[in-house]
Amino acid sequence: MARSKTDYLWYGVFALLVVFAIPWFMWRDATTWAGLPVWLWWHIGWMLVASAAFYAFTLGAWDRLMETAEVP
């Protein structure tokens, strides 16, 4: 199956989601906001970003990239 530019864009999106899922650069930082460490807020926000990305993926690219057969 030939890959389109959109498919490669999704590969990049998923790679970024994995790379920034754990905020290694914020560890050992004791800064807090609203009673929780900032790195925890990063993780909560990143999970929202990941949820939005996965939702967008299911809207159009899921069937093509997962090679599922379309139901008539």
From TrEMBL:
One Pfam family of this chain: DUF3311
Which protein, by its recorded name, is this? DUF3311 domain-containing protein
Where does the sequence pass through the membrane?
A: 9-27, 39-62
Keyword annotations for this protein, in alphabetical order, are: Membrane, Transmembrane, Transmembrane helix
**Which species does the entry assign this protein to?**
Halopelagius inordinatus
